[in-house]
Amino acid sequence: MNNKSQIFKYSVLSLAVLGVLSSTAYADDEKPIKKDDDMERIVVTASKRAKGLQESPVAITVVSSKAIEQAKVMDIDDLQTLVPTLRVTPLQRSTNTNFAIRGFGNGTNNTGIEPSVGVFIDGVYRSRAAAQIGDLPRLQQIEVLSGPQSTLFGKNASAGVISVSTREPAYYQEGKIEAGIGNFNQRVMKGYYTNGITDNLAFSVSGGFNTRDGYTESVSGLGDINDKDRWNVRGQALYEPTEDVKLRLIADYSKINEACCTVENSINGPTTGAVRALGGVDLDETSSFAYKSALNSDPINNVKDGGVSLQLDVDFDGYSFTSISAVRNNESDFMNDVDYTSLDILNEGGYTDIDTMTQEFRLASTDERQLEWMFGAFIFHEEVTTGDTLYYGNDMRNYFDVLMSAGGAPGLLSGVEGAYGLDAGTFFSGNTAVSSEFKQDNDAYSLFASFDYHINDQFTAIFGVSYTNDQKEITISQNHNDVLSALDLATVPTLYGVPIGNIPQLAPAVPVLESLQFLPPMLGLPNAAENNESDDSKATWSMRLAYEINDNINVFATAATGFKATSWNLSRYSSPFASDQAAIETAGIALPNQVYGGRYASPEEAMVYEIGIKTQFENGSFNATIFDQTIEGFQSSIFIGTGYVLANAGKQSTKGIEFDSNYNLTDDWSFTLAGTFLDPIYDSFEGASGLDGPVDLSGEKPAGIHEVSITAGIVYNFEVFNGADGYVRTDYLYESDVKVAENTPESLSREVNTFNASTGLAFDNGLSLQLWVRNLTNDEYLLSAFPPPIQAGSFNGYPNQPRTFGANISYQF
Hints:
mainly beta
């Protein structure tokens, strides 16, 4: 049976079973809104106006603060255990997390690549993963919108949106303080306080810290890796001078200082012998989940993130006005041992500084009318300054000497240095470094409009349109003193006038030397031959038809487009396009050993077709969406060992079905079940980076996209002595087997079977107790994998987090 047939079979079976069950669309118990006497109505803002979840013709999953608290979701990283359509992948540093929805997503270690999944917190766009990481604040709910959302969400939402809403300050005194402990010496403290100052002015303040020792032990006498050391603080003011005017001011700041992240040896290639010959420790490939580290220096990861936003809402007669203004800054720096052995071969350090300003205006109708409307504008300005340095270590020269000796070319480096008249030890000396600096200025705006036309009481047509303009200007420079990599062996084939090929001692060395030129100099921008600017414009649209069959059943159909502008390659492998070679050579600016590849990936353009159903009954709900989604020019970033190759996949598509459901068997027992079934494929992707050079991935399945993802949960509520309320909860996440990453062998795959559990008691006096465990069965799988620098044939991976558990006590008043 082929994969499409399997997916269809699973989908039909699931729909049959799930007609009586349901989802991660958890209601928020603290502020219930009743549709009638029996059913609770969950309000969402997916259309940028408050609507009931069941009436919103959007594929959306809603997770309440209660579900997050019970399931002990400590960070956005953990959210995927409740949302099967979402994939969250932590990578090399604390600053790098990749989000994908329905398998679509990018925005990894390359700062130039903005995510295809837009993240918004209280209506403010967060452009990079480093600004999204932090312990979740005092939450209202989280909405995960599947499919292109470019019409209403302004910028870079071609694959979906994660929208986080926190609670407004209250006019009455309310507070909570919580303390927790866990294994690996975890210590957690957080709390909030809110109160009214006057009848129309209220405030809230929240904050906390989360520390934990690392769970990966160093075998070379260094510190543990994968610790936690982060804190955050957040303040809000709510001012309502009249019943028609509301101002909400939010200021937040967070800091991370951690040793991240654990890297294991998936495959030890031929170069492993050279490491061990020099006395280095290279981890055994059979101990991927022993959580050991053989680094020669402790990794350093620092992140500082903060910002201020101001939201103004004004109600007029028949319409309302909203303005959201925000300024944010994100600073990070790192130092990592990137050869991942105990030898001092390669180290990398770097920094990133991002200043962002956003402004959104919306004008929307408010009274009941046949034609509801909304007009808006979004303005974005960002300055990115980033740089990195690759330091050659004291063992690098010896490492290559051993490799040359094993390959039958002992003393090669010394011989070539002598032939070129260079001092002995010039190649790969301990003072060699390659420093790259990048700057990107980005200005963008979008104008959007949305119209809801009520054909009759049951049938509504919704049309949205948006025009986006995105401009970027790039500056690139490099300080490069790797002498060997700068030698142009291909175009300077003579030595003192004699062709190298005619010198018996050197002729066989030429291909070997070329293999050691792993980091040729990078041509800077701007220059006389290349354009260092991009200017992209695109109109996107969405058309939705919604029909209310009765009070319990709604169906909808959607056709929508999405857009993401050009992403520039801000990494050491940023290089001119081959089409610019003639102009570069004519201008006389070609560097020795000039490399051609690509400076940027052109815009992404998405298209989706959906048919969905939403149902809600007295004891549960069931929602499902069948979709066909494609992205033309998907921006692919593939790590090749010492940098990133950025390219456009011609076309990537995914057909599938997603559902979510919940069923309340009794007042005490509730069940949740949700899933996503995908059939992803590269319809066309020529020239992708492969293990042995460019490959054609057309017709192949993309790596890292699970065909089947399932989440399930059971909650039992009970009462005990003195009227205390208790619960027991377990959640399960399943992801089918898939190759972990592009540019890695098929043997490196992952399958996820993870259980989480928690239990708690809440007493009438405000005291609560909780026990929790994540990854209960110690499920083991790789998050991703990659080829390490200058270790051909070897592959490293990021193992998932082992079992963690803890206890919390809180007091609410």
